[in-house]
Hints:
Blueprint lengths: L7 H20 L11 E5 L2 E7 L10 E7 L4 E9 L4 E9 H8 L3
Antiparallel strand pairs: 1-2, 2-3, 3-4, 4-5
Amino acid sequence: MTRLRTTPVAALWASAFVIAALAIVQAGRLPGQAAYAETVSESGDYTVLTARTGKGPDERPHEALWVIDNRERVLIVYDMEDAQRGNFIVRDGGSLENLFRTARPR
């Protein structure tokens, strides 16, 4: 009786194919409408991005400003109804740890 020995390289390739297949299956379950960040910038401990909120007219849509403080691990979301006038309204925010804990399925 001969024993078949699997090499570590073959095991790694097999696991890579399994992971790739799982990623493809999960990607097929994603919602149809994607969200895109309009502008993203990072400086020091801060990451800032803007994205359309879906409100306002097409020619001047409202935008949200997302600010992440990486040092304090805090996210703050501002709504900009009119970016030209600089009107910012704090919409939400909080500890990233708490936000992820709340969003995690139980």
